[in-house]
Amino acid sequence: MLDLGTPDVRAAAAFYGAVLGWDYEPMGDGEDVEGGMFGKNGKMVAGLGKLTEEGARPAWMIYYTVTDADATTEAVERAGGTVRVPPTDLEQWGRMAQYSDPLGGQFAVWQPGESKGVDLVDEPGSLCWTELYTSDAAAAKEFYGGVLGWRYSDMRMPGGEGTYTMIVPSGLPEERMHGGLMEVGREELALAGGRPYWHPVFAVADCDAAVAAVRELGGSVQMGPENAQGVGRLAVCLDPFGADFVVLAEI
């Protein structure tokens, strides 16, 4: 599950529609609708909402599935994290909560009801990976491992540029790894004011075409496009309002 908080819902819907081929369905009628859902080939891929939190930056919020949002909240507090939004029922669809890890990285959890989360992943135009940039990888591994039961596998990055940690969900085999985390310098966390931050990686059929659309529609590119050995061709992008995401194509 993931959703985007943005100051301009309609402009963001048009941007991601062009870059990722998404359709947008507002939740309601009229010009003042403040959110809705993104879809691809008739399947839900993400949510979109008006940014209302004072001082918050436009960003994607990633939700990780849990069986008990209340128990997870207690685990977050025991591990030194902060509860930003306490467990809340969203009608019959599920129960959610939002947190900050001890270093300030924001994330959320989803306890499924009738909705299990997104309907399409690992295909062009959908989420295929999640990634955390943090100033302290060891602290992040300890926190998320304790709260969400994640296991880890470290790999050296090409060129000796540090270590990349692969994340494996609790109770699943290594081939079901869903994300990674990487320790970076404080200057590389400027986007979030020096705090760690998560961002989504979206699969695309053509990385260069996606990047061209990003630039044409007022977004920008922080890195790439470039080929990453064993991964694919990728680029780190910002939408017109500064929310970060990655596009990744198989090569």
Question: Could you please describe the fold and organization of this structure?
Answer:
Helix content is 18%, strand content 43%. The protein contains four helices and 16 strands. It is globular.
Low-confidence segments, ≥5 residues, pLDDT <50? none
CATH superfamily of the largest domain: 2,3-Dihydroxybiphenyl 1,2-Dioxygenase, domain 1
CATH topology tier name of the largest domain: 2,3-Dihydroxybiphenyl 1,2-Dioxygenase, domain 1
Order of helices and strands: EHEEEEHEEEEHEEEEHEEE
Strands side by side in the biggest sheet = 2-3-4-1-5-8-7-6
In the residues, how many domains can be counted? Answer: 2
Q: Count of helices? A: 4
Roughly how many Å apart are the termini?
27 Å
Compute the number of strand runs: 16
Rg from C-alpha positions? 17 Å
Report the helical percentage.
10-25%
Integer average pLDDT: 92
Structural class given helices, strands, pairing? alpha+beta
Question: What best-fitting shape do the alpha-carbon axes yield?
Answer: globular
Any idea of the CATH class of the largest domain?
A: Alpha Beta
The biggest sheet amounts to: 8 strands, mixed
Give the second-level CATH assignment, the architecture of the largest domain. Answer: Roll
Topology of this structure?
Blueprint: E1 2-6, H1 9-20, E2 23-26, E3 35-40, E4 43-50, E5 59-65, H2 69-78, E6 82-90, E7 94-100, E8 106-112, E9 126-134, H3 137-148, E10 151-156, E11 163-168, E12 179-183, E13 197-203, H4 207-216, E14 220-228, E15 232-238, E16 244-249
